[in-house]
């Protein structure tokens, strides 16, 4: 599916008002998405899925989020009101990955890299299943402390982004540990962008939040790049001038508990080696970044199977400029969108 552009939505005011604005802007699209086999979860699962059967799990996650991140919980309730959907449906949009559970067979699930050699840059592909090209949006958020540019899919309050404190955050799926009621990683990233003044604060937040599922977070500031791997309540932290991550744990102890399928792990290793062999381009060399993100194996092509992850977007973020460059859809054919924080 080819996407020509992603809607740009400005969110400001109290949390509930931000949610209402978000919901109203995408109301028709979100209702259609929810009506498509329950946000396409039915297409990704061997068993039927219905909202009533998921309500207890949604409530368990909501209880943790409401305690840890009350503003974002209020914003999700506002999203439901603005879009005119069931409250639990709005929460489901934040929890699709966690409610589906993890599959050890993945075709890709993001390739991310960052560099602070010279000017800082964080870039990545976004590899998702569910044909989510048509659900991309870019949010300009005026949060409680910081303004940010946030990539969103299907009503998510966050996915990745950059804020006006010079912090960019990307992520990768990694598989391990017990997935249990908690804060979805995407909401954790949104909270970081809303509140963190520094890389140190961002890392502290990611280490302290009760996350619902395993992930790797890439945090890039103007002078520091840090990777935080999360496995249950444990965290592994790596810092260097240049970092790259795909979908297998890099920490030696975590690697022993990696649940990724061997074939998917081979794909993950190939993509990681492709970044390392190519080298991370200079921050200002947009063409080289785009070429790297648009070329297999880093680009994961569409094979026509909705259950298979494929590249549905690519981004370059400049923490020093408060800028995000987005290619929505297949980055090898998509047109670039550029947005900057004022």
Short key terms for the protein model shown above:
single chain, Penicillin V Acylase, Chain A, 6-stranded antiparallel sheet
Descriptive overview:
- This protein has about 350 residues and is of the alpha+beta class.
- It folds into two domains: about 15-100, no CATH class; about 110-340, Penicillin V Acylase, Chain A (4-Layer Sandwich), CATH 3.60.60.
- The protein has helices spanning about 15-25, 25-35, 50-70, 70-85, 85-100, 185-195, 200-210, 250-255, 260-280, 285-295; strands at about 10, 110-115, 120-130, 135-140, 145-155, 160-165, 170-175, 215-220, 225-230, 235-240, 240-245, 310-320, 325-330, 335-340.
- A hairpin with a 2-residue loop joins strand 9 and strand 10.
- The radius of gyration is 18 Å and the shape is globular.
- The model has no long low-confidence stretch (mean pLDDT about 95).
Spatial strand order of the main sheet:
1-4-5-6-7-8-9-10
CATH superfamily of the largest domain: Penicillin V Acylase, Chain A
Q: Strand-residue fraction? A: 15-25%
Task: Name the shape in a single word.
Answer: globular
Distance between the termini: 32 Å
Average of pLDDT: 96
Spatial extent as radius of gyration: 18 Å
* Residues in helices, as a percent range: 25-40%
Number of domains: 2
How would a textbook summarize the main sheet?
8 strands, mixed
DSSP strand count: 14
Provide a count of the helices: 10
What structural category arises from helix and sheet content? alpha+beta
* Named CATH topology of the largest domain: Penicillin V Acylase, Chain A
- Please state the second-level CATH architecture of the largest domain: 4-Layer Sandwich
